Amino acid sequence: MPYPYSWQEKLAGRIPDELGREIDVFESQMELRRQGKIDERVFAETRLRRGVYGQRYDNGQRHDGQKVQNLRLGVPGHMKGPDTVWNAPGMMRIKVPFGGMTPEQMRVLADLSEEYADGIVHVTTRQDVQYHFVHIDDTPDIMRRLAAVGVTTREACGNVVRNVTACPLAGVCRGEAFDVTPYAEACSRFLLGHPDTQDFGRKFKIAFSGCKDEACALVSMHDMGAVARTRVVDGRTTRGFELYVGGGLGAVPHKAKLFDPFLPEGELLPTAQAIARLFARLGEKRNRARARIKFLVARLGIDEFRRTVLEERRKLDPDPAWTEFLETSCEPRESPLENGVARTGAEHPTGFEAWASGNVYRQRQAGYAVAAVTLPLGDLTARQLRGLAGIASRFVGDTVRTTVDQNIVLRWVRETDLPELYRALSGIGLDAPDAGGIIDVTACPGTDTCKLGIASSRGLARELRRRLSEKSLELDTAIEGLRIKVSGCFNSCGQHHVADLGFYGISRNVNGYTVPHFQVMLGGKWKENGGAYGLAVGAIPSKRIPEVVSRVTERYVRERKKGEDFQTFVARIGKLAVKNMLQDLAVVPDHDVDPSFYSDWNDPREFTLQDMGVGECAGEVVSQTEFILSHSERELFEAQLQLDAGDRGAAVRLACQSMIHAARGLVKIEDDTIDEDEDRILAEFRRRYCDTGVFYDRYAGSKFADFLFRAGEEAAPDASWEAARQQIEEAQLFIDAAHSCYGRLKGARAVP
Fold it and tell me: Would the CATH topology of 352-427 be identical to that of 438-611?
């Protein structure tokens, strides 16, 4: 029993005044919403800023049929209606700055998961913790219990500064310039609730990395990212940061731009504040599709953006918080429980060597190691987390961190204690090897709980993990370190763009049925802080994605040159060869021949987008529209080949042309006389699909139509490689949305 007496008694006097007031205010806002005195739109942003999300399923039943036991479904009668979170269980996100947790916090997180959620604690790709199937009425109590151990949900969601992430090896890494932990912590504290961060058009993400070469915190895909750097000035070593801005994944990824090659440590917080002020003032507010800071940086250009930020910086009134943390930033932040001792040749338990080879990192401090705890799909049970808290107390103390690949690491383990630590982890079922390897597949929640999920990312990831684990002894060392990442839609919450093999969920209409597919993405780079983004090479039915992984990896093992990494190999053989290799896998058998293709992983139901508010599709033979959409995809693939060949102008031209043809395919449904006249196609598409809203749904939205209308204006024969790549990304999203629109139309009425 977690608490022998009431939690109110236990927490008396432990909740910080500021956090307590915030929670009281939120509870009052909940009551006003119940009374109908706060508009749902306003309250939605309020609860998001407290970490409370809506969730896909509203009946306490998972899509795979598993009943959630610990779920309060009582809904006040006067609150029943389609627009309120009181009707459904939701998700709650908990902030874990730089991933740092203590055993006490872990125990509370475990208790709350059992008492208020479904007993599962989920670690996210931003080092946060999430609960699913939480009733909104319980959220203030959860917040208070967390606040009593120094944890908050404030600004875990919403249009604010999200959780500040950092390398989980910071402070113990052998290759870091210095420990970025105090800087990440100071940045998180300074910007949390700051007046200059409350008027953003969209969210803002920050990451800190101790070095540039490894993945660390994936700086290149963040709105603001800082890489530790040192300089010697007058014989003295000074600290600073290589600062980047304007990165982001999402529908169309942008790589962050270099803002300053060496920003002195004392300028970190005022510069972050100035960037926040500029984003709030000049960032897009109406069109959410272009409201991230990456679009502001792209619109102004990095030079003008830098000039404007520095001008903003000069206007700021001095704030003691900018530098007061620097007085202790060089001091050790962690200390081991006992003196370090190197491993001996003593006998080890069965399985230890395989676990240690992939899960143990030797610290720069002699005699100590970091042990990674592999969490399949980022999940562990409340019992496991409680057991892990006990293990942490025994072996490392308060030196636990979550990671961006959804695992947990225990720092400052004495090397001589590693075998015993392994035994302890085995006792709670957390002894899986291969942390960060090909078996350790990353996935977003997808259709399990996310309202925007299109395909089952977790179901696919679970199947890939199962198959790869079964053949683990046969895996070639060349592929053991490859990364597989899966997203349930184009938004890249699973970080598919920076994976060796990335997949994101889409749907296709096949013979009148909606069939789950994944776009296959190759060529992403996990190292160098997410140093390169992959591009889509084709849509494959969900049930054949495991075959894609087998074919691609087997060919890599068979044909790679000595020392050739996966990205170089894919670039050398070319996307056309990859496309040809996977072409037969794109074929979907008739429903009568193999109905399994028409359902998703771990879901016995026939696949549908109905949970997103989109009806099932029905139809019969291949139509002219389907042929035209297929033609547009072929053009887009040719654009990718042209980009690979170095002809950026041709790549942009073909990408724009592919969108025009996809739009023509939809117009042709209602106007069979439509010809190749571009102006007429655009005018008819706008009139028939945009002005009427037919093209828009929760999957597409107006932003994808904007890609089409903007393409001709922004296309340039002398486009940069990055601009050409972005044009291809936008074209792919527009074509996917055109497929989705066509599928909806077939379900709504008879179309050719």
Answer: no
